[in-house]
Amino acid sequence: ADGNIGMIGYYHTDDSMFFRVNDQTRVTITAAGNVGVNTTTFAANGTNFKVSDGTISRLALDKTGANARQFEIGNFGTGLNVYDVTADEERLRITSAGNVLVGSTAVQAFPNMDDLQLGDGSGNRGMTISSGTSNYGTIAFGDSTDGSGTDRYEGFVEYYHSDNSMRLGTLHTERLRITSAGDLQRPKSLS
Predict the structure, then answer these.
(1) Which residues, including other chains, have CB under 8 Å from residue 157's CB and lie 6 or more apart?
(2) Whole-angstrom Cα distance, residue 133 to residue 73?
């Protein structure tokens, strides 16, 4: 009666391999090289590894030895998260609406300002744009629908490391500069 309770098998009809535990197929490897955990179906878009569960599907990534740490990537139905098991903290969440939350598990931002949220409303938070010493970092505001032209950066804030100036632009043109000395320069005085 327990002949199939635990086994490794091969289906010649579709050239797939399976692993059974407690009379349930737990791992399937298809002829195309797809690996499924608790599933035997794969999307036609080239899925190579799929974990399926009725509550939450998780993929655990363990680093052992020096600097050991465990992370899990999970699908909890209404989003995807990256969980630091070692610290018992969720580090990143992408909601089903496409919101990206860093350091938070709930959208707290105003609805039209909630695509990216850093923090959970407690403690000090920050964001760094790290660019080269002779280069600049930019936050751009665009309304391009085709990914070309100046409408990709109609408004911008730029920091130039070469002269340590901050520049603000509207209508894709620099309108105000704060020099490294703290002086404000407007368009007529810009060089």
Answers:
(1) 138, 139, 166, 167, 168, 169
(2) 35
pTM: 0.70
Q: How many CA atoms lie within 13 A of 114 on its CB side?
A: 17
Q: DSSP 3-state assignment of 132?
A: coil
Furthest CA-CA distance within the chain: 90
Q: In what order do the strands lie in the sheet with 57-63?
A: 57-63, 69-75, 79-84, 89-95, 100-102, 116-118
Residue 189 corresponds to which tokens in the numbers above? Answer: 């005085």
Look at 4-8, 42-46, 90-94 and tell me which has the smallest mean pLDDT. Answer: 42-46
- The angle subtended at Cα 83 by Cα 78 and Cα 88, nearest 5°, is 125
